[in-house]
Each structure stands twice: as structure tokens, then as C-alpha cells.
Amino acid sequence: MIKIGVIGAGVMGGHHIRNLSSMDVELVGLSDIDKNRVKELSTTYKTKGFLDYKELVKEGIDAAVVAVPTKLHKTVCDYLIDNGVNVLVEKPIADTVENAKDMITKAKKEGVKFSVGHIERFNPAVQKLKQLIKNDTLGKVVTMSSKRVGPYNPRIRDVGIIVDLGVHDIDIMSYLLEEKVKTVYATGGKRIHPFEDFATILMTFGNSSTGLIDTNWHTPHKVRSLTVVADKGIAEVDYIDQKLVLYDKEWMKEAKIERKEPLSLELECFIEYLKKDIEPPVSGEEGLHALQVAISAIDSYVNNKIIKI
To answer: Hey, what domains does the chain have and what are their CATH numbers?
Structure first.
């Protein structure tokens, strides 16, 4: 049985721990600098708790989920890779492009499996939409537009909204189109946060499609939606309700979707990746591209210019 640990037991780390505790793996333990949090979660899920992640690694884990603040991703991942531990690192892959590249290179050099946790790919509504685009039900995609807005979460302190939330939609649009972003232009600003807390991002892709992302931490009502406009129809996704509605010249119809927690599906794919000689659920390079676009979007709004990726 695969032995897994979770490093970082905040909100997201807690969700990883909850899911892994009921999966066909051995949840060896968890680590966090918050003593009370470690005690609470290790007791609840009947696993070992550590204040130092290096002590968790000494338990002989095969893989680890890294859910620490973004600025610590490289430090923690480097240690794991040096010790032959396979890695699922939460998005964004790193705080800088250079650090992300170093992590990817190091994992390959040491023969360690490495994947990035872009959870929205595993939303059942997104998976269904991916099928419809791939089998040409929608036709050629013209534009995509997303809205990811809601109230500010005080726990997000180390990055702005583009890297924290906008990166979700950057990745989803690239994933659906199977194309990289060619250019990005963004506007944004800050009112309540040290970094930008609202932004609008316009992207062009290699196949001439465009993507528009609207995101902020100012809206009292939480919205997570995506609209894909194509030459055979329009698709609308509600990420929260896991709904997909299709419109064509004759019909409006809702896809039949079996609801399931995206994180659970992501972890199932990661565990399968650990067991078999297959491609990672989300590669380091894909995580790197999403980060490159996000950082370029910040550069764009700060300097009011179009950035080529």
C-alpha cells in the first residue's frame, strides 16, 4: 500500500487529509507549524502528527501532498525530491517561474514523480465539457469567459488574486483548448489587500481563440462560472453546482452529471499515477505555464502592456 503524508494542514491541507484518510492508501501522517491544528487533525483521522515535515519524511513515505503557503513550495518540494518522495504540490506550482523550473528539473533528474494540484480540472462538469469540445459537439471554440468572484478570505496573504484564483481559469482554458496562451493583457488593482485584489485578464491562444477572466475579492456573493462560445453552440458551467448547460440553434439542455468532490477525483488520479507508468494528472510543465501566464498578467496590469508568453 502506498504511504502518503500531507505537509501543510490549513484549510486545503485539511481537505486532502480528510479525503486520503478514506482512500486505499496509508495516511502515514501530517505536519504543520500549528500545534493545535496538528493535534486536532491527527486525532480526528487517527494518524501521526508532526510540527516538522522532515520528521514526517523520516517515517518512510512514498509520496506527499504539499499544501503550504506558495512561497514555501520550492523549499519543501526540494527536500522531498532529495529524499526520493513523489510530490503533489498545490497550485500555483511556485512563487516564481525560476523556482518552478528548478523544481521540475530536479524532479526529473532524481526520477521523482511530480504533479500540480489544479483541482478545477477534476470538476465533473469540466470533465464533461472537455469531452464535448474533444468530440466536436460544440464545434470550434471562439471565446471563453469566466467569472470567479466573491468575498475576501483573510487566509490568503502571500499572493494576489491573479496567482491565487485567476490561475485556475488560466489553466482550465488551456486544458480545454489543449493550447498554450500566446498573449495576455490585464487590468487590475488593490483596495483591501497588499497585492492586487481585482483583475480582468484577456488572453489569446495558439488556435486564435480568446479567453476572458473576471476575478475579484470584493463581491459579497460567490460565483464560479465558465461560458464557452463555439460555432455549433454555447456551453455554460457552474463549478459550484457542477452543472453544464448546452445551447444550440434548437435546444437548451442540461448534461447529466454525477456530482463528486473534485479533490477526491484529483487524489484518485494522483494515486493511479503513483502506481502506474503513466503521465501525471497535471504535469509540472502545465503548472509552470499557468504560473507564467499569471505572472505575465500581473506585469501587464502594472505596466499597461500586452505580454507575449
So the answer is: 3-112 (3.40.50.720), 120-259+291-308 (3.30.360.10)
pTM assigned to the model: 0.95
Query: In the numeric block, which cell numbers belong to residue 156?
Result: 490568503
Q: Which helix (H) or strand (E) holds 285?
A: helix 284-303
pLDDT digits (tens, 9 = 90+) for 168-204: 999 999 999 999 999 999 999 999 888 999 999 999 9
pLDDT in tens, 121-133: 999 999 999 999 9
Cβ-in-10-Å burial (0-12, 13-18, 19+) of 258 comes to exposed
Q: Which residue has the cell 504533479?
A: 115
Question: If you search the block for the grid coordinates 502592456, which residue do you land on?
Answer: 305
Segments in the chain forming alpha helices (H): 11-20, 35-44, 53-57, 73-82, 97-110, 124-134, 161, 167-177, 262-275, 284-303
Q: Are strands 63-66 and 234-238 parallel, antiparallel or unpaired?
A: unpaired
How far apart are alpha carbons 5 and 66 in whole angstroms?
A: 9
Place of cell 489543449: 178
